[in-house]
Design goal:
The chain has helices spanning 9-25, 41-53, 74-88, 106-125, 136-148, 153-156, 175-185, 201-217, 221-250, 262-266, 270-285, 291-302, and strands at 32-36, 60-67, 93-97, 129-131, 162-163, 166-167, 252-254, 257-261, 310-312, 315-320, 323-328. With 343 residues, it is of the alpha/beta class. The protein has two domains: 9-217, Rossmann fold (3-Layer(aba) Sandwich), CATH 3.40.50.620; 251-328, Uridine Diphospho-n-acetylenolpyruvylglucosamine Reductase, domain 3 (2-Layer Sandwich), CATH 3.30.465.60. The strands form two sheets. Strands 3-2-1-4-6-5 form a six-stranded mixed sheet, sandwiched between helices. Strands 7-8-11-10-9 form a five-stranded antiparallel sheet. The radius of gyration is 23 Å and the shape is elongated. 38% of the residues are buried.
Length: 343
């Protein structure tokens, strides 16, 4: 750019959102934050706002560009994003080319490869945070996808504005504002053809489902879905905190595992009882129980008819007298992925 862009409402809104996020979470004076930049309008508007706001808060701002190598000329797209980041004044700028596997489907595999590259780059650069360009529209799409899958609060809570070290300053900003901010600033975003490929469920939600809901129910559906996520996140966090306090008192170590007292589990409401079961298994065995498996364990408490042990992935669960006993079987490495699908 040869001249400084005028301050338009879209640019001002995005700068204000970035400033608030960095002021709360950005780290100490002279620290480095990185923008995850694809070159699309959301991340490009975020990069421009971060380049403007970070120095005013005593922070350095750089960028990391992940080339998934899934599209023709993806290296050219990454190179163009790098040039744009440098022109905005971001420094350092990293370009990371990744190999996307097949586990979990194309979207999940690309997400896993992307976050691994972002984590590695943050560690290498010594950055405190990575800023992601998810918008309110992405949040609404995430909630709708969770509803369609029959997910619980863990999915319907959507994406956190601050899931450290990741920050999402634009979760209250509509996608159209990022497009307008780029136009106002004279920036030319890359338009990802995958964002129009209806083979992806998220694209169908974006291009068909949400517009139909807006038409039939009236405007404001996306904002309502985002508010729903906010409320569920508050409830989910509160239940998590309470369950963590309770679980400390309930868990007893048993041979090759742990146990929970039946009486204590039975005395709690179903939502808390099932959360205690999931939390105990996650904490001890690093396994994430599905809802179906959680309910099977809960039946040993609430619908006990002398049934035998449950053989679940990685653990064996049985009722022994007044205890529900969990023991490890074939362990799986790693921790479960609880990161919502990206936009």
């Amino acid at each position: 750019m040869t001249s400084r862009p005028r301050l338009t409402p879209a640019i001002a809104d995005i700068r204000r959102a970035v400033r608030a996020s960095l002021a709360q979470h950005g780290g100490g004076q002279g620290g480095l934050v990185l923008v995850a930049l694809s070159g699309g309008p959301d991340s490009l508007a975020l990069a421009a706002a971060t380049a403007f706001e970070a120095p005013r808060l005593g922070l350095r701002a750089g960028a990391v560009i992940v080339d998934h190598a899934l599209q023709e000329r993806s290296a050219d797209v990454a190179a163009a994003a790098s040039v744009a980041a440098t022109a905005l004044g971001l420094n350092p700028v990293f370009v990371r080319r990744v190999t996307v596997g097949a586990a979990g489907g194309p979207e999940a595999a690309a997400r896993d490869a992307r976050y691994a590259a972002l984590d590695d780059t943050r560690a290498e650069a010594g950055a405190s945070h990575i800023l992601l360009g998810h918008t309110l529209d992405d949040q609404a799409e995430t909630v709708l996808l969770g509803l369609a899958r029959g997910s619980g609060a863990r999915s319907l809570r959507g994406m956190d504005a601050a899931a450290l070290p990741y920050l999402r300053p634009l979760l209250a900003i509509r996608r159209q504002a990022t497009v307008q901010a780029c136009a106002d600033a004279g920036l030319e975003p890359w338009l990802d053809p995958h964002n129009h490929d209806t083979a992806f469920a998220r694209v169908r939600v974006r291009s068909t489902v949400l517009p139909v809901l807006e038409k039939e129910l009236g405007p404001g559906v996306a904002e309502a879905l985002a508010r729903t996520a906010d409320q569920l996140r508050e409830d989910d966090d509160a239940l998590d905190r309470f369950a963590e306090e309770v679980i400390e008192e309930l868990v007893e170590h048993a041979e090759a595992g742990i146990s929970l007292p039946v009486t204590a589990l039975a005395s709690n409401p179903a939502a808390l009882r099932q959360r205690l079961i999931r939390l105990a298994v996650l904490g001890e065995f690093h396994l994430s129980l599905s809802r179906a498996h959680t309910l099977e364990v809960a039946r040993l408490v609430t619908d006990w008819r002398g049934q035998g042990a449950l053989d679940l992935p990685g653990i064996r669960v049985e009722r022994q007298g007044g205890l529900i006993v969990f023991r490890a079987t074939a362990r799986r490495s790693g921790t479960p992925d609880t990161t919502p699908i990206d936009g």
